[in-house]
Write a sequence for this structure.
């Protein structure tokens, strides 16, 4: 879909992180966790390109003014890092943006009896939140959230409200245990049993560590990747990542935008 | 004005419903955009540059935004001519819009061989020869910047196909007219210009180039003045139809290229800004013609008062 969208609300949820709610056509309700949207934050040629963001949630709400029809929405949890996200953070309710999406494949949501371990850091929590919101109550879910400092630890209240066991680790120990979230995950992998899958989204070093852990423990692992993007639809080949069998003579490049952003960690080359 | 303005253009034996095409490498193989626009509203689809064998392309990161533009170092990654024929042509066959296939080679023989394979495909309306691959170490850089090399590559392609041969020029040269003239001498049917300008972006924080390839091709609104200048210079010096390319994001940009001497235009980076950019440009050109009482778009081609 490609649609004009009105800002409903745009609030800072933690220093440097905001949650924006945007109106969307009804079909947004069919979006799958792990899918993303490409947002044009303003008209004109600066910034030139759309910005990719994972879908934090979708839903339906009743606008405050009387007799207006129920509206569908999409939410994005974003970190202010540069030009595009700064402009986004300054939008007010009733401003407009232009949205392309949902794009990409989304997580393979698996069987209900499989325990689902969500591992994320920073804005990587966005798609995991959507996942948790859809599956809470029907599947065993645990969440592992990492960050540099406590400000970078997002969504703990949301996860707890969904009744999900949540483990937190920060580099400086200002929230949860001190150290890497992968250490906390490792403890879990060593103690628990039964069939389980890890769903991970966050900075590259974290994904690499999680993929390695899962491989050692023989557990399925899906990772959601990031890459600089221009088109978002598989046309420009700007966003590729190396597949397992990649070599110079037999290239195995996958588009993060179209073949991903979610990949089976075992399908990728982690050189 | 009640009558629908005539938007059609023709050149090199190609008949187009309107002069707006998509630029190679920015529109995939057409299908990627089918859900976002009507592919039968534009003049032609130009597909991603093909080579004889599949090509891996460059390491990541491959793209970065720059003021008013973007740099890309895709490295001409593509599925190769055989996969194009088996996997991409079947969809393109269902679309009632001419398909122009862009391609390149590492050697004269490769150019010739790909051209020969394309010659056999009834679905291909014309070929566009990329002689200006600025990101590939063994690619078109030699052909695109040396008039003699350009002449021989166009000759080789010419001998391998009876389809219209469009040669896409590199702007990374001192004298664009000299290059255009060499292609004309080699019996090209049309010229498209410009390809991307070689540029660079530096990441101060990490003291590294942004692109893994260090340099990349600059495209988007930032290059429009250069593209316009080159189209204008070539159109005055060489008797070949020209396809204007470079930073076109709206109907006004497109019409400026026609005035400067282009018979048709291609829309590239703008497809990333809005996936239906090319269709919108067609609609807005038609609106402009109506509002200004212009019955035939061909009245504007080369009509610059200079
Ligand atoms: C599939 C996907 C999902 C994402 N989901 C989220 C999310 O839910 N919340 C969130 O805050 N961020 C998310 N990101 C990252 C987000 O796209 C970037 O933070 C954003 O593009 C930065 O734009 P900017 O103009 O503020 O930064 P600038 O640094 O000024 O951007 C310059 C250019 O680099 C690109 N860029 C910069 N950082 C990134 C990055 N990390 N990934 C991809 N491109 C980048 C920009 O798109 C732009 O083209 C996601 C990225 C991808 C690929
Ligand atoms: C991501 C990307 C990939 C491209 N790939 C090709 C290609 O394969 N062959 C080619 O001849 N030109 C290629 N180009 C150049 C465009 O076709 C066009 O000439 C150039 O981008 C200038 O037009 P624009 O400013 O409208 O984008 C590519 C451009 C971009 C941005
Ligand atoms: S962003 Fe263009 S192919 Fe993925």
């Amino acid at each position: 879909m490609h649609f004009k969208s009105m800002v409903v609300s745009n609030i800072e949820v933690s220093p440097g992180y905001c949650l924006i709610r945007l109106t969307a056509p009804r079909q947004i309700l069919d979006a799958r966790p792990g899918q993303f949207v490409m947002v044009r934050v303003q008209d004109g040629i600066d910034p030139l390109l759309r910005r990719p963001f994972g879908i934090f949630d979708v839903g339906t709400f009743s606008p405050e003014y009387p007799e207006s029809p129920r509206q569908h929405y999409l939410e994005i949890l974003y970190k202010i890092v540069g030009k595009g996200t700064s402009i986004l953070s300054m939008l007010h309710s009733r401003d407009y943006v232009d949205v392309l999406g949902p794009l990409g494949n989304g997580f393979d949501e698996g069987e209900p009896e499989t325990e689902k371990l969500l591992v994320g850091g920073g804005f990587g929590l966005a798609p995991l939140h959507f996942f948790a919101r859809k599956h809470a109550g029907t599947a065993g879910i645990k969440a592992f959230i990492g960050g540099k400092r406590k400000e970078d630890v997002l969504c703990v209240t949301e996860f707890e409200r969904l009744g999900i066991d949540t483990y937190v680790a920060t580099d400086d120990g200002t929230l949860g245990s001190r150290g890497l979230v992968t250490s906390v995950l490792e403890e879990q992998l060593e103690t628990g049993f039964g069939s389980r899958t890890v769903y991970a989204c966050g900075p590259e070093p974290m994904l690499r560590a999680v993929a390695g852990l899962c491989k050692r423990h023989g557990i399925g692992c899906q990772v959601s990747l990031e890459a600089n993007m221009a088109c978002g639809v598989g046309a420009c080949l700007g966003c590729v990542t190396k597949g397992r069998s990649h070599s110079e003579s037999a290239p195995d490049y996958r588009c993060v935008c179209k073949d991903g952003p979610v990949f089976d960690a075992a399908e990728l080359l982690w050189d | 004005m009640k009558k629908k303005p005539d938007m059609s253009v023709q050149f090199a034996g190609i008949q187009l419903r309107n002069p707006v095409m998509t630029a190679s490498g920015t529109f995939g193989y057409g299908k990627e955009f089918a859900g976002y626009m009507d592919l039968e509203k534009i003049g032609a689809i130009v597909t991603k540059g093909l080579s004889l064998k599949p090509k891996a392309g460059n390491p990541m990161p491959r793209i970065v935004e720059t003021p008013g533009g973007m740099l890309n170092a895709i490295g001409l990654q593509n599925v190769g001519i055989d996969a194009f024929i088996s996997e991409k042509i079947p969809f393109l066959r269902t679309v009632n819009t001419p398909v122009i296939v862009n391609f390149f080679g590492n050697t004269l023989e490769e150019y010739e061989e790909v051209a020969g394979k394309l010659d056999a495909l009834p679905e291909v309306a014309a070929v566009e020869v990329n002689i200006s691959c600025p990101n590939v170490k063994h690619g078109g850089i030699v052909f695109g910047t040396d008039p003699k090399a350009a002449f021989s590559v166009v000759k080789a392609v010419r001998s391998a196909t009876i389809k219209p041969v469009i040669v896409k020029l590199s702007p990374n040269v001192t004298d664009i007219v000299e290059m255009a003239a060499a292609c004309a001498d080699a019996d090209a049917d049309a010229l498209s210009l410009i390809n991307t300008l070689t540029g660079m972006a530096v990441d101060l924080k990490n003291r590294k180039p942004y692109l893994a390839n260090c340099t990349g091709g600059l495209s988007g609104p930032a290059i429009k003045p250069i593209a316009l200048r080159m189209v204008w210079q070539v159109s005055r010096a060489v008797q070949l139809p020209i396809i204007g390319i470079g930073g076109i994001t709206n109907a006004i940009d497109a019409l400026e290229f026609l005035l400067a001497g282009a018979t048709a235009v291609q829309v590239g980076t703008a497809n990333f800004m809005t996936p239906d950019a090319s269709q919108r440009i067609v609609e807005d050109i038609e609106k402009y013609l109506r509002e200004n009482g212009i019955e035939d778009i061909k009245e504007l081609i080369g009509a610059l008062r200079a």
Remarks:
- Residues 47 and 228 of chain B are 23 Å apart (CA to CA).
- Residues 9-53+81-198+218-299 of chain B form a domain with the TIM Barrel fold (CATH 3.20.20.70).
- Chain B touches chain A through 35 residues (CB under 8 Å).
